[in-house]
Structures are given as structure tokens and as C-alpha cells.
Amino acid sequence: MKIYNSPVIASTANRLKQNETQMQKTMEKLSSGLAIKRASDNAGGLAVSETMRAQVRGTSQAQRNMQDGLSVLQAADGGLNHVNSLLQRVRELSVSSANDTLTTSDREANQLELEQLMESINDTAEKLQFNTQKILSKDTSLSLQIGAHAGQSLSINLVDTSTTALGLDGVSLESQLQAEQLLVKVDQAIEKVNTHLTKIGSEYEALEHHITNSFLLESNLTKSLSMIQDADIAKETLQFVSLNIRQNSDKLLISSVDTNTKDIIKLFH
């Protein structure tokens, strides 16, 4: 008679094994803080959480892209304001040289300063850079990826501020007529620079608006992701305690059945 093959022991041992597996999973959740670590935990939840995690990371990178865009616009704004101040001085010299009472030496001094101002304008256009890219040397636009998905982009416009682009090549203050002609040209150049400064201000505000929305989106995504993947610590702790109690109870039951079985066997000897 095989009294050792007790169905009670077999059933309890099987339950012990299941409890141990469940306790290991619960411990993993408690130690990692994650409710989903592998597909076997929740295949659908894992797929959703991975998609959301990718979107969070993409949104975070898009924010850095937009911050770079703001830096470009700030640099362009500073460069344009510097060019504007140089043009204002050119205008002062033009008004001065348009006066027919100037001496030859006065005109020569004004012409010399004009040439220096033209050189400074070209230096600003040629040397102002962001991340090795010249930002005032040609009319162009830069595309910024402002979201985690394709098609979420925004363009910022840059303008050429060289003397050629501003229509100031070959200008002179050597005569009253040339001074009057330059006065017209420099007013047009100032208008062009001011127009672009206004555009930069609008683009800067638009980028700030997109950044604010992006931070809100990232915050909401992070909260949603947390709800999906984060473990309920209180719930998992309670489950671990419950499983531990069952485990100890089952071990005690097996030990008790085993002892009783041995006692019964002794009766047959």
C-alpha cells in the first residue's frame, strides 16, 4: 500500500510551486516598481507602454530641438540689432554728408568711417554662427522637428544682412549727391532689417508656445505611462504577505501529513 502518494501532499506541493512562482513575480514588481517587465506580464500593456515611452523620449528630444531654435533666433536677433545700430550710424553720416557746407577733409573722414561700418556689417553677416552654421549670410530657412512624429515641423526664417543683400555695395559719401542717394538706400536697408526683427519676434513667440504645449504633452504622457507600467506597491505588498502566509501554511500542512503518514506506516510494521 503506497500511503506516501497522498493526494493531499501532491495537491499542496503543486500549490506551493505556483505560489513560489507568483511570489517571485511579486518580488520583481516590488523591487523594480514596474507592473510590466516582460510580455508575459501583460502583452497588450507592454506594447502600449513601449509606444508611449517612445513618444515621451521623442517629445523630450523635440523640446531640445526647439530650444536650439530659440538659441538661433536669439543669436539672429542680436546680430540684426547690431547691424541696425551700424546702419543708424551710416544714416547719420549720410545726413551729415548731404550738407553742402562740409569741407573735403570732413567728407574724407565720413567716407573712411563709412567704409569701416560697411566692413563691420559684412563681418557680422559672415561670422555670426550657431553650431558652425552661418545664420545671417544668406536668405534661408531652418526646419525644426518640434514633435515626436513625422510631419511635426516648424520653419524659422533667416535673412542675408551683407552689404550686397542690403543694397549698400559701392556706396559713397564723397559728394552731396552720393550722400543723398545713400540716405535713400540706408533707409531701405533699415526697413528690411526691422521687418525681419519683427518676424523673428513672432517666430520666437510661436516656438515658446510650442515648447509650453510640448511640456504639457510630455507631463500627461508620463502620467499615463506611469499608470500603465508602475506597480501598485500597496497592492503588491499585500499580495506578497498573503502568498507568504499561504506558503508557510502549505509547508506546515505537508510536514504534518508527512509525519502522520510515517506514524501510520509504523503501525504496519
How would you describe what is shown here?
The protein has helices at 7-32, 43-97, 104-127, 176-229, 233-267, and strands at 129-130, 133-134, 140-145, 153-158. The protein is mostly helical. The protein folds into two domains: 7-33 and 231-267; 44-228, Up-down Bundle (f41 fragment of flagellin, N-terminal domain). Strands 1-2 form a two-stranded antiparallel ribbon. Strands 3-4 form a two-stranded antiparallel ribbon. The protein is rod-shaped and about 120 Å long.
TL;DR of this structure?
This protein has about 270 residues and is mostly helical. About 70% of the residues lie in helices and about 5% in strands.
What labels describe this entry?
f41 fragment of flagellin, N-terminal domain, two-stranded antiparallel sheet, rod-shaped, 5 helices, 4 strands
